[in-house]
Design brief:
Largest interface: A-B, 31 and 31 residues
Strand content of chain A: 15-25%
Oligomer: homodimer
Shape of chain A: globular
Number of domains of chain A: 3
Helix content of chain A: 25-40%
Strand order of the largest sheet of chain A: 4-3-2-1-5-6
Structural class of chain A: alpha+beta
Radius of gyration of chain A: 25 Å
CATH superfamily of the largest domain in chain A: Creatinase/methionine aminopeptidase superfamily
CATH architecture of the largest domain in chain A: Alpha-Beta Complex
């Protein structure tokens, strides 16, 4: 039976007129384990963001502008309508459901909408309840073990120790920090369900989600200590011993509900970051008020976001090693460009081969993007096989967005290089240079304590506006240490209420995308560092961590100020100085020539 | 009897343990008519912002950093403690009241706190209720007609017509705009109590508040039309005829309560901008829900903020005339500097003399600031008499912040000039130049639709951060047309959620204040104008309206980019070109020399 047919049969048997299928797992991770990719299984659309809504006769998929083209292609012929989020005329999910209901002639009170109560946050659930009323919204339990033949299992990725020599702080230290920052008098219980917060807190790492070093888990933190709920059998001896040494009680993943129920009545209940499913919320709150996390951005998330000096040093080491790999990859591309044999796929394979030789390399931190010309105009392009891969020949921009995990740091670097015999056009040079100007302007910002990301965003975006162009993604995201490459809370700095704080590590990635022609993005990663303390305030600057040369060929130097020219020269020189002792003679000579 | 003694006697007679005296009038105007300056009468402190709290034995005054020094001086010896807002250790008003109560030994339920219900917005009132509980918060009616001997009357300033040839739209047109932007189906009633919103809507102006062309008034706008509540006897024949021609019903100021009570039960009640006293709110809402204004920033306020082309042209004319006055004043200062006779007071007098010769000049738009060296380090300095006025001699920075009302436009310009034979120091030049760089950067911004002020603020602030200095006031405020020089909603752009829109007129005024030495502020006024429309978005730019030369003497040209140098030269040339035909030969020659 077709996936949608099975689902509809199940819906009919349960009396649901509609089901809403989000892209979440139970922990609201940005990316989800394969077994939670139900929306992809049903719709064929495999982008990272999308919500599928299925009635007994209709279906529609909501996704954002990053995925319009891809979704259109992937859902074709499946009887699913594409709903383009934020475009004029696109109905909201409740509006669309209401229009289906009207067409069906069924009374609202009889038009039962179902959601998996583990996959909806309590915020979203209550919002939908309100908007759908008087249609009833009911939760159900995951039916896909039977509806999805061959559904992937969660696997048995080991839960590893993240050594204190890299983490910089013990779990006991972090526990004290969290308790002190919560600042609650008397008994309390903090419920964590965001896996990367739990990994950070407990100095462990997992492998349940591709590229993200997390294990599915819950955590309760109260006046007495920490309880971890995970697949105990996956814990390595090292991790298990460490957790025991730190007084962490380890329970089975399935024991969380009983533990939530057992929270003493008098304890102040706190959920972190609104990241809590309606099912867990109901158990946790049962008759008691639940308090939102008292720290803007989340108590644990803010502590995790501010890297300590040991962590910062680890990131520096990671970026140094990554820089060496990048130089090898770039040299390979330039050496082989003339042969006409390069394509997006074999460049990606070469990259992985080079990285596999880098000490302590644990894998890529996200799906590598190697995109040639027009392929780079969609911001999240990635190539999966050689057959569909573009030949890198004939001249143009090659955009590469690549990142690595090391136990001491995670990298994320984008470079766009201009290849070919023909010189870039004036428009290509202008676009490349304005992106570079934006990247430099943000990297060079000095700002006082209390400055929020939205107050700096214009520095990266501003130069491109003169051409009437802009990019529609965020300028910056936080980066986890051998964790999630997109780390809250400073993600999407243009709206975040979070003030930037010392130790935050974040990307600086302005871009421009010209439909059907090319995409240009230049991304460095920066560390919020002290600049000055005066009678007026404490001021911060960014330290650039990335050590990958920036291509000069498409730079229109007449568009740069003296300071920007000096910045570019000094940056490439710094890259050379840092990397040269780790390069072969041939690589060193190539790099010296490349940055000239 | 001393003012505080009379107040306490009255409090005792009414059973109040505490009264809270804000700086408001009944309309929450930024500045208030003299008869509402009760806080000043009681405390001696005449700054624009401050809240006095009086118990039967204690008193304390809360004010912000702009006024710490001034307040300290003015309240000295009056038994009032200064509470520095946002400084570590400063209690909130409810915290302080609670500590007084504890000291008194009186039970909370008996410790009655009183406020004038016409001077507290409903938001503030409910917030205080919550924070003070279980202490009771009760409203009283203004007792100061009897407690304040010689209390100023409101006067009888005429209510004048603001001609359509300047306003650019009729009241009927504006009524239709408001109704359409409210977008409410069925009966509704919008209650306006912000005087400048009412003036704008009805094309009238008043003179109840110094510098602000408003008359104290209320307004109800419903499906049938507009009712204005004002001192009818102050209406000029012209204004009265115009209002009649537009179908506006004019009632007495005192009739508002009856009209609020008569709003039909079925009408959706809307208050604009939360600018509604708890007294009026209680009458308006009686048993019915009151809806906040559906437009972020306020429906009327947003319409008023976006000037139409006729208004924009009027502002250009106002800035042209003001530019001529500025050149005359600057020439006078430079011509007479050598004589040693200049002081802050006689420069201000000269300014008023010059302006009185400018066609259609209606008066200053705020209290003129002429501040020499260290006097300019406090951002809101103003001089009131010759005796206390500093002699402008010996070299240094003279900061002048001046504005005019014309019927077609209002100006607000700050220039800082360096006078004397000795050259400015490197630090002085650096400070002056970094302020200028910030002003230029904001003026030159290009930005897409949807950009909020907070996203541009860094452009003005950023350059100064490198020196570890910053200013603590806003970078920008909206400007009313012959109305309030500080016009919402784009005031304090660093926090405002308002997206900048075509036609908004706003200041661009970065600054630096060096305690005990000098203040430097350079302020131009800009108009949000179309820049480009592309496949990506609609983009805006700023048109600079101000036409006053910028002093070059303290510019460190080595700190400017080529583009900034060109901007400065082009700007001063543009000023010359625009003004020259309105100047005498001597003035023209002086200006040509000054900008060289």
């Amino acid at each position: 039976m077709e996936p949608m047919t099975s689902l509809r049969a199940w819906m009919a048997s349960r009396g649901f007129q509609v089901t809403i299928i989000p892209s979440n797992d139970c922990h609201f991770d940005e990316y989800v384990p394969a077994r939670f990719k139900v929306r992809e299984y049903l719709s064929g659309f495999d982008g990272s963001a999308g919500t599928l809504v299925v009635t007994l006769t209709e279906a529609a998929l909501w996704t954002d502008s990053r995925y319009f083209l891809q979704a259109e292609r992937q859902i074709k012929g499946r009887g699913i309508e594409l709903m383009k989020i934020k475009m004029p005329g696109t109905p909201s999910i409740p509006q669309w459901i209401e229009s289906c209901r009207k067409a069906s002639g069924i009374a609202p009170e009889q038009y039962k909408v179902g959601v998996d109560g583990d996959l909806f946050s309590y915020d979203d659930y209550f919002a939908f309840c309100k908007e759908l009323a008087p249609m009833p919204l009911e939760t159900f339990s995951d039916p896909f073990d039977s509806l999805w033949p061959g559904r992937p299992s969660l696997g048995d990725s080991p839960i590893l120790l993240h050594k204190e020599e890299y983490a910089g702080r013990s779990v006991s230290d972090k526990y004290r920090d969290v308790v002190s920052n919560l600042g609650i008098e008397g008994p309390f219980c903090l419920f964590l369900s965001a896996c990367d917060e739990i990994m950070w807190l407990l100095n462990i790492r997992g492998g349940d989600i591709e590229y993200n070093a997390v294990t599915l888990s819950y955590c309760l933190l109260d006046n007495k200590g920490i309880k971890l709920f995970c697949r105990k059998e996956c814990l390595t001896g090292e991790a298990s011993d460490y957790l025991a040494s730190q007084g962490v009680e380890v329970l089975s993943y399935g024991e969380i509900d009983a533990a939530l129920e057992a929270v003493p009545a008098e304890a102040v209940r706190i959920v972190s970051n609104n990241c809590c499913s309606i099912n867990k919320y109901k158990i946790f709150s049962r008759g008691k008020a639940v308090m939102p996390d008292p720290t803007v951005g989340g108590t644990v998330a803010m502590l995790r976001a501010c890297k300590n000096p040991v962590q910062a040093q680890g990131f520096r080491q990671a970026f140094l090693q990554d820089g060496v790999c990048w130089v090898r990859l770039l040299k390979y591309i330039y050496d082989n460009y003339g042969s006409g044999s390069l394509n997006e796929y074999n460049i990606t394979q070469k990259l992985l081969e080079i990285k596999s030789g880098s000490a302590h390399y644990l894998g890529e931190s996200f799906e590598p993007i190697v995109a040639w010309n027009a392929n780079a105009a969609s911001a999240h392009y990635s190539v999966t096989d050689e057959a569909s891969s573009a030949r890198v020949a004939g001249g143009g921009f090659l955009l590469m967005d690549l990142g690595s995990h090391y136990p001491y740091g995670t990298t994320d670097t984008t470079r766009t290089v201009f290849l070919g015999e023909k010189e870039p056009t004036a428009a290509q040079k202008e676009d490349f240079t304005l992106v570079l100007k934006g990247m430099i302007a943000l990297a060079e910002a000095i700002f006082p304590a209390g400055t929020r990301g939205c107050q700096l965003d214009i520095l990266a975006r501003g130069p491109m506006y003169r051409t009437g162009k802009m990019y529609f993604h965020g300028t910056s995201h936080g980066i986890g240490q051998w964790l999630c490459v997109h780390e809250s809370p400073q993600i999407r700095m243009e709206y975040s209420p979070i003030a930037l704080q010392e130790g935050m590590i974040m990307s600086d990635e302005p871009a421009v995308y010209v439909d059907g022609q090319y995409g240009i993005r230049t991304e460095n990663v920066v560390l919020v560092s002290p600049f000055a303390k005066s009678d007026y305030n404490t001021f911060y600057r960014f330290e650039t961590l990335t050590l990958v040369p920036i291509d000069r060929r498409a730079v229109d130097f007449s568009l740069l100020t003296d300071a920007e020219r000096a910045w570019l020269e000094a940056y490439n020189k710094r890259v050379y100085d840092a990397l040269q002792s780790h390069l072969t003679d041939a690589e060193r000579a190539w790099l010296a020539d490349y940055i000239k």
